[in-house]
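Morning F.,

Quick status update on the modeling queue. The single chain you submitted on Monday has been processed. Sequence for confirmation:
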Amino acid sequence: AQALLDGLTAAWGREPVALDPAAGELLARRPWPGNVRELRNVLERALLGLRGARLAPGDLGPWPGDAGPWPDAGRGPGTAPAEALLTLREMERRHIARALREEGGRVEAAARRLGVPRSTLYQKIRALGL
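Structure tokens below.
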């Protein structure tokens, strides 16, 4: 899981994120029928809402495959219960909308902040209806 986190943060141009030992234990207890792809999706979703440099159990969102929380997982400060139920598409939409809002609607500045080419951001804006 830490290796996947390292790869994702590097690909996204983000500062490295450490996997909290308690979160690592939760991930290790879960049978992963979807293998690495499913684990990667859980970590991507957690990273989208993460506001720090440590991924805690409460940042993992819902247990894959149902709407409930991870067993014995407390809610961390980075994840509200309503956010945990968002789809990856909706989280991406909100993240892009926030970047645009914080950059005063300037697409070029928002693209730079998000670490994507301006043309990619324009495509996502159209696709997500922003």
